[in-house]
């Protein structure tokens, strides 16, 4: 499989009080062409920093290592080259659609912009924008095209953000917790849509999420991060069937299941990771799978 995005040895640091603080410590990650890769891990593990590094969105970050998108090296590339891939090389969807949209600009214009700045006529950009919004399930898309963001519900706004991210047909979509701000039913609709559109277009997706249920339904491959490092990566079925790293086993053990015994406590990551981290001192058995009553 050809690699669309290939990150290797990525290190990211920020200015600290006395010296720079490194928060991502040598991450390797591949998104093959047309595949959906979920990046999971606890809060603060470096998922967003890793994803934002691809498009160098953070002026304070110092980035080392290699990030190749479609074979092009982005670390150390001229700002013009990195700007050039935003939109057509890689599109971005963030968690909160309200902060991603300009509140005083009509949504249609925001959707058209990535095309217009690439030289597409306004007429064609408008037609393509309306068609995409319609494809993304916005009823009466032509009439709603000139509305402002506040006239849309949260779920509809996130469809607008997705439209902006994919209108210039990027080969890669980076979606950072794209449905966290939405209610569960709308979450499912938006993810289903992303899944379908990615398949239709053969678009690779890097999806950041906390939610392993989302991973199971959406991703082909999973990369698990902890403390700024990748601890495990595998195809989704393999990882769910036989997680290798204690941290991943802990994450999976913490998922509530409808068929589990309600009197039995769920395991937590700490049940596994403590064992892992103290393995040299005292080899203790982890709490049993979803089942060890205490
Ligand atoms: N602009 C910044 N300046 C300094 N430190 C930062 C900056 N952005 C992120 N960090 C630090 O980098 C670490 C990793 O953060 P990151 O946002 O990537 O975590 P995450 O895994 O995406 O977490 P979450 O799931 O909560 O979004 C954290 O310790 C965070 O405080």
Automatic annotation (TrEMBL):
InterPro entries: AAA+_ATPase, ABC_Ni/Peptide_Import, ABC_transporter-like_ATP-bd, ABC_transporter-like_CS, Oligopep_ABC_C, P-loop_NTPase. It is a peripheral membrane protein. It is found in: Cell membrane. Residues 5-252 form the ABC transporter domain. SUPFAM superfamilies: P-loop containing nucleoside triphosphate hydrolases. One of its GO terms (molecular function) is ATP binding. Keywords: ATP-binding, Cell membrane, Membrane, Nucleotide-binding, Transport. Belongs to the ABC transporter superfamily. This is ABC transporter ATP-binding protein. It comes from Herbiconiux daphne.
């Amino acid at each position: 499989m050809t690699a669309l995005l290939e990150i290797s040895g990525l290190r990211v640091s920020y200015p600290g009080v006395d010296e720079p603080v490194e928060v991502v410590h040598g991450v390797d990650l591949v998104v093959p062409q047309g595949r959906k890769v979920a990046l999971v891990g606890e809060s603060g593990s470096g998922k967003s920093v890793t994803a934002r590094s691809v498009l160098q969105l953070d002026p304070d970050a110092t980035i080392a290592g290699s990030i190749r998108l479609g074979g092009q090296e982005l670390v150390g590339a001229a700002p013009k080259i990195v700007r050039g891939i935003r939109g057509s090389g890689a599109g971005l969807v963030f968690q909160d659609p309200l902060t991603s949209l300009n509140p005083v600009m009509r949504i249609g214009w925001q959707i058209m912009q990535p095309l217009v700045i690439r030289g597409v006529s306004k007429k064609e950009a408008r037609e393509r924008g309306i068609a995409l919004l319609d494809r993304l399930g916005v009823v009466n898309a032509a009439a709603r095209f000139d509305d402002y963001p506040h006239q849309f519900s949260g779920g509809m706004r996130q469809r607008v953000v997705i439209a902006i991210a994919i209108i210039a047909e990027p080969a890669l979509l980076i979606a950072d917790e794209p449905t966290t701000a939405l209610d569960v039913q709308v979450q499912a609709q938006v993810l289903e849509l992303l899944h379908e559109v990615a398949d239709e277009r053969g678009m690779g997706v890097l999806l950041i999420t906390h939610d392993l249920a989302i991973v199971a339904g959406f991703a082909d491959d999973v990369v698990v991060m902890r403390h700024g490092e990748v601890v495990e990566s595998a195809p989704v079925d393999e990882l769910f069937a036989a997680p290798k790293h204690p941290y991943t086993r802990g994450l999976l053990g913490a998922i509530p299941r409808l068929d589990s015994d309600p009197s039995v406590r769920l395991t937590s990551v700490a049940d596994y990771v403590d064992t892992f981290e103290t393995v040299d001192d005292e080899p203790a058995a982890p709490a049993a799978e979803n089942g060890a009553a205490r």
